[in-house]
What we know:
The protein is α/β, with parallel strands linked by helices. Helices cover 35% and strands 18% of the residues. The chain has helices spanning 19-39, 87-105, 124-133, 150-158, 163-169, 184-187, 234-241, 261-270, 284-290, 300-307, 324-334, 348-358, 372-383; strands spanning 6-11, 43-49, 63-67, 71-74, 77-80, 109-113, 138-144, 172-176, 198-200, 222-226, 250-254, 275-278, 293-296, 313-315, 339-340, 389-390, 393-394. The strands form 4 sheets. It has a 7-stranded parallel sheet with strand order 3-2-1-6-7-8-9, with helices on one face. The protein has a 6-stranded parallel sheet with strand order 12-11-10-13-14-15, with helices on both faces. The radius of gyration is 21 Å and the shape is globular.
Amino acid sequence: MTAAPxxxxxxxxxxxxxxxxxxxxxxxxxxxQGLPSLTGAPVTGMVITGLAPGEGFDLPEGFDWLVLPGVxxxxxxxxxxxxxxxxxxxxxxxxxxxxAALSSFAPDLLIVDRHPYGVRQELRDPLRSLKRRHxxxxxxxxxxxxxxxxxxxxxxxxxxxxxxxxxxxVDHVWVYGDPAxxxxxxxxxAPTGLIDRIRFTGYLAHGxxxxxxxxxxxxxxxxxxTAGGGSDGYDLLLAAAAMKPPIGHEHVVVTGPxxxxxxxxxxxxxxxxxxxxxxxxxxxxxxVADASAVISMGGYNTICEILSTSTPALxxxxxxxxxxxxxxxxxxxxxGAVDLMRSQDVDSSALGAWAASMVGRQxxxxxxxxxGLAAVPRLARELLRGPRLIEGRVA
Length: 395
C-alpha cells in the first residue's frame, strides 16, 4: 500500500526583493528530496508567493505555485503592487485566498517565512482556521539568522499581540544559521514567547544549486558582482561596473530583475570592454563557485551561495532601513568568512583594488555550519511524527 503524500506549503509575502521566495524554493526542493527517504511517503506541496516566478525558479516534482496579488513596500507601509484597489481590499482578498488554500489543501506542514502572520496579519485567521479544522497540521516559522536590532524586533513581536495565540499557532521556529556566528536568542532578536521552540538549522548553504537550473560554466576567468533582486543595489552596481577588472579577468555584473530600466542602462553604460552587465544569470550558485572573487550586498541568500564555496567575497551591506545586512557581514567577517566594506567607503578604485588582491586566493569556510538544507528534512520528520489524518484516512 502506497503511503499518502505528505502535504507541504511554504508561504512568503515577497513585498521586496526575491530573498523570501528563493529561500522557500530551496527548502521545497530539499523537503521533496529528503522527506520520502525518512518517512516512506512522497511529498506534494505548494509554494505561496506574491511574485510571479520568473526564469530560473524551478519547482520540485509534485509542487505547484499559488501566486497571490502582489504587495510592495511604500512610504506608508504595504500597498498593492499592481491592482487598483485599496490596501484593505487587497488584504481581505489575500487573506481569503490563503484561507481557501489552507482549508482545501490541508497541509501537514506549513512553513511561514519571517513574519508569522504575514503582511498586516493576513495569515493569522487562516492559521486559526487551519489549526481548528486540521489540528495535526504543524506550523513552522522560518527566520533568517539575523533579523534587526533588538529594539526593532521587540516592537515587531509586541505588535503581534497575544503570546498565547502565537504559541497555539506556531509549533517550531527554524533559524537558518549557525549560532556560533550569530545567536539571535542571545542578542534579543528572537520572539520571547517561542524561544523554547527554536531549532538552529545551520546556514541554508550547501545544496542550493539543486534548486537551480543547470548551466554551462563561464569559460573565461571572471569576477562577479551581484546585488540580489537589485531593488536597492544601484550605487554598488554602478561603482562596480566602472571598476577595472583584474588582469586576465572579465567582470560580470548581475543587477537583478527588480532594477529599473533607466538604472540598468546607466550601469551598462559605465562598464568597459571587459565588463558584462546583465539582469539575471540563472544558476547563480554555480557562478559564485566558479568566480575568482565576488562583490555583493549582504542579503541572506547571496551570502549562503558565497559560504558554500571557497570564493573570496567582499560584502557591502545595506544599512537602511534596517541593520540586518551590516550585522550579518560583521559576524561573518569576525568568523574569517568574508571581507567587509561600508557603503561610504565604496568607489570603483577601492572595489578594483580589492578584486585584484583576491583573485587566485581561496577562503576556507569549513568551520561554519552550512548544512541547513540537509537538516530541514530531519527537523520536519521530527515534527511530523505520528499518524497524519488526510482526507478522512489515517496515513
